[in-house]
Amino acid sequence: MASSSTQDLVVDGAELSHPITIKRGKTSRIYQVIAYPTQLTRKITNGFLDGTTTPDPKTMKKCRWHTAGIIRFHVNPETNLIYEARPDLNELEITLECLLEESHKEQLAIRAEEVYGIEFSPDNFIISPFQTFMAQLTIRISGVTRTYYGILVDNKELHPMRIIFNIEDRDEILEIASKLDQPRDHDIVLRYDYSLSGTSTASASLTISAEDVNKIDLEKQIFGKSEAEKLVVSRSFMDKITANITTKLRVVEDIGVGGSSFGQDLIRQEIANAMSASGFQKFSINDIKQMQSADTDITDDLKADIINSVSSSNDDNSESTHHNLDESSSADSSDVLNEKSNANRNAGGQSTSSESNWGVKASYAGIGGELNKSNKDSQSTNFDNSNSAAKKDHEIISTESARKNENSGSKKNSNSNSNAVQGQIRQTKNIDATIVHRSDIVKGFNISLSRFHHQLATTSIKGRLTTKADVEMQEEIAAKENAEREKQARKEEEAKNAKKKMMRQESELRPQQIDDLLHAIDSLDEDKLKEMHAEFLELCPDGQMTREVFSNAFRNLYPKGKVNNYCRYAFPVFDQDSTGALNFTEYVMAMHAHESDDLEDSLGLAFDVFDYDKSGTIDQKEILHMITSTNEL
Question: Is 617 part of a structural domain of the chain?
Fold first, then answer.
């Protein structure tokens, strides 16, 4: 057996199971034999099933199934016993065997062909190694039913399997041994429990059929009142549809032990992929607008995106106009301020001129001149104050105007940049969408998901043996072998007889064959030909004449001659189909070849007979053989 480390087996339901019948005399028992595939075998056979792997002889030879076959007691052919007692060591050894005959392998191979549709051979099935093997022996000792526990000595041993029971009482070992000497006469039960280690595959599966899809009127949900053949669908719209489908269909996953759920996101994604083979792509607003046509519509949310895009563009244009008006207003205010300032300046100049004249007059009157001076200062101060206020207002308004101009310029640039960005956005492919065809939705779709998760696993198998039913003694084994040999001999004899019968039927004298031979050999008539045919079948029941039989038949033509040498050279010439034997037509031609009246034919025949190296020439040695052989006739 193999080591007890993890084996390269799959033990999760991928096994082959087949009933095997074991006959013993007039009785028979049926055993359910289980064979576990290796991981490579599982991979190859899965490929056969889904069509991804093309079977070929080399690949199929790599496939292996491991099986324990049929476990039963093993009878030592030398001692004719199923045990060996070692009382001094407090040990009792019972031997078992895994029975897996060639016929059992053939039945398993047939079962594999039924499952995978590929022809396998018995070589694909081998005895399985055990990771652990424990046994429990139940026997009645001194009027009391006792149970003893044993283990497999070495799991590397293939045949036989030795189970060791440690029994402290020496007398008990001897009493058990005395009963095992005649196992058929006592009720002795051996229960076993063995494990196979490998990997298991936890699976999860989900199926949605076209029939299920058609029940929820999916076409109306997607296309609504639209009569278009194709519909451009956004991802958000598709998410709503797939969520609705999973709700209405009540999608349920079949999750095996140790398996995990696919999750709603994956299920919805698979539904979306099934509805649109092209899948989601990136589109711009302009792309979406251009896709609208007589047979192609778009979903409402995409239409809203287009409208929003146009509205944003109009708002930007409106704001740009408002800023232009503000800029014009600011310019007008600046012009008014300039006019006011100029007016004040003009008024101040006239006052100065007037006071200057009046001041001259005041030079003649001291008081008046003083008063005039005071008025002059007052007016001059008013002028300066007025001009200063105007300048201050001008500065404030100019500053505000400059600020507004700056803001206006900034907003102009911003608006210009916004328009540029808006144009870029309309060209940017940032919309996830796909195209759904109405015809695909109407006919429905199928979804099948499966997931496999490999994990370490161990399978435990229990069994029960009784010495009355599961021990095959040596005489029974010998009788069985003799019966098998007789059966095989009968099969061979039947096959031989069937072959002879077929050949006899093939060698029946046919009308066309009679006509051809009578035409080729003038000295023959139909009665003579039929007589020769009867003699031929008597000599060769299978319709094939060997060289030895031919020599004996040819000797009848030359009873006093020596025909062996001549027949040795002539036989290959008459065996025209080179089968190593003569059929009836070749036999007739050989027996009458010497009767030809045509000299050229006779010489041609002689040449062919004695040119035995088929060189196309007859050398001196071959001429000598020809003369010697013909003289001996």
Answer: yes
Q: Which two tokens mark 298?
A: 């778009």
Q: Provide long-range contacts, Cβ within 8 A and 24+ apart, for 152-155.
A: 152/1, 153/93, 154/1, 155/1, 155/2, 155/3, 155/4, 155/129, 155/130, 155/131
Name the nearest CA neighbour of 359 among 347, 378, 348, 374: 374
Phi, psi for 93 (deg, rounded to 5):
-110, 125
Q: What is residue 595's DSSP assignment?
A: G
511 and 598: one domain?
yes
Residues 347 and 378 in one domain: yes
**Same structural domain for residues 269 and 360?**
no
Q: How many domains does the chain have?
A: 4
Cβ 486 vs Cβ 516: under 8 Å: no
Whether residues 522 and 462 fall in one domain? no
- Whether residue 481 contacts residue 550, with contact meaning beta carbons closer than 8 Å, is answered with no
The angle formed by the CA atoms of residues 544, 550 and 555, to the nearest 5 degrees, is: 155
**Residue 541, SS3?**
coil
The whole-model pTM stands at: 0.45
In whole angstroms, give the CA distance from residue 267 to residue 250.
12
Which domain, by its residues, includes 248?
A: 210-284+433-445
Structure confidence by residue, pLDDT tens digits, 54-100:
778 888 899 999 999 999 999 998 899 999 999 999 999 999 999 89
**What's phi and psi for 280, nearest 5 deg?**
-80, 145
Token duo for residue 576: 């025209």
494 in any annotated domain: no
Which value, in Å, is the radius of gyration of the alpha carbons in the chain? Answer: 56
